[in-house]
Amino acid sequence: MAQSYPISPTGLLVTRFNKLAPLNELERGVLRLIEGKGKHTHSPDSKLLTEGAEIRAPHFILTGWAANVRELSQGRRQITSVLIPGDAIGLSLHPRPLSPTTVMALTPVRTVEAPELTLAWRDRERVPNLSKAIDLAAAEQEYFLLNHIARLGRQTAHERIASWIVELEYRLSSRDLSTDGAFAFPLTQENLADITGLSVVHVNRTLQQLRRDGHIDLSRGRLAVLDREALYAAGEFKAPSLSGWRIAPGERPSSEAISST
Amino acid sequence: MAQSYPISPTGLLVTRFNKLAPLNELERGVLRLIEGKGKHTHSPDSKLLTEGAEIRAPHFILTGWAANVRELSQGRRQITSVLIPGDAIGLSLHPRPLSPTTVMALTPVRTVEAPELTLAWRDRERVPNLSKAIDLAAAEQEYFLLNHIARLGRQTAHERIASWIVELEYRLSSRDLSTDGAFAFPLTQENLADITGLSVVHVNRTLQQLRRDGHIDLSRGRLAVLDREALYAAGEFKAPSLSGWRIAPGERPSSEAISST
DNA sequence: CGTTAGGTTGAGCAATATCAAATTCGGTGG
DNA sequence: CCACCGAATTTGATATTGCTCAACCTAACG
Question: Nearest residue to nucleotide C6 when comparing alpha carbons to its C1'?
Fold first, then answer.
């Protein structure tokens, strides 16, 4: 029953970071090394990291979903971002010992330690494309954080859910975890409520609306984006403009970058 | 009429960063140098930076307030964070050419360029305490961003405004721009609405409530926190736990750090 | 099969938005 | 000093979104 989620043959991390910046063989090696490392498992609702606690080493999620969480009084909680396979936990490029947030597993989660990333960071010259890819990942993350603020502050229930879903699909597909807009979706409606700042009941009704409109199909733990156009429009989602990031002006792909193996 | 805001004699940047990590004389020199640089002025509503545009050099705000803004359809806008004197604009520790957000002046704003910060960054050994201070500033900023998400997602109008005000006062006092909880407050209620995700009318009514309760005094461009305890409780505000950050474990204050001049 | 977590439905309600009309305030020119 | 102007604030009335509570349903699982 402890069935593992599919991992693309190339390796999750290579897949993800290579898309951000084409990696050379050394860099791929580093990532493969990390993926082979000692793995940790976490059960749902367990904390991978506690706000204010010291961060030991950065981790990557290999399988399962987690979330950055803020807890308020009266059982209120807000998920500030959802972490999916390929996302880093406690990766502070600037050495920052204390976690600014609590990280909680939403499903069973498998992680690997990646202390060499801190090193890779110090040693940009050695792994230039990897460093860059990490930069871009961090930039992308910040962009999504700002998206989330706008979502919670100024969008309606319908818009919030629409924009969050397409953002999620966007992120999953960049890791080859979504095919044709459909993917495994392990969250409960209560999770969704904590993400979107809505009540569970209202999430339920809004989802039904989206289904009735033929925009999504959500059942048996799978979510399919049926009308991407409509959802992008409804949620006013704009993909982060990475184009400019990928090829920084006046900079050519470093070392012997490989486009495809 | 173009009256400038008060600047502490020591210099805004020194004041601010020295509190985060005690600076040595060289580091103070760097900051003083920056403050003496060619200044830029921006009128209210003008953009200091546009989302997706290339960032040339990092800037610091010396006087005036600005905001990171996301614009949606139908004139909706969400302020993701308010920038006050001493805050950096476009400071990407990780070299990231494109701005993830639009920055807009809320009042007349004066800024200085600070290209040497990027250098200071590369060269951590030379200005260790300054580097650390910048780390902490970035960490603090991220913390406040997460605060804001929780605020918008799970707090009531009353709580949102309370927690935002105390957070603001906390930030201002770390720059010596607040005395006894009172400070110059140049924002309109419409700005406040775009910050808190509320309508202007509701902001107005909530402010009146806070006044009636004797928690704040807001008039003639000054805001006074009358009952900090009550506001902290109402907004569930917790100061970022910098204690652990300031003295990283196994690390002693570098070089000839100066506690006070 | 009984239990349980998650999902769905309905009814009533509270918080907040919207709209429209004052009113106040900080200038500014006469 | 006064009259005026536009921006900002305030007020009242009404509309709407989304919340709460409470029940019921369903599927998975031991």
Answer: A188
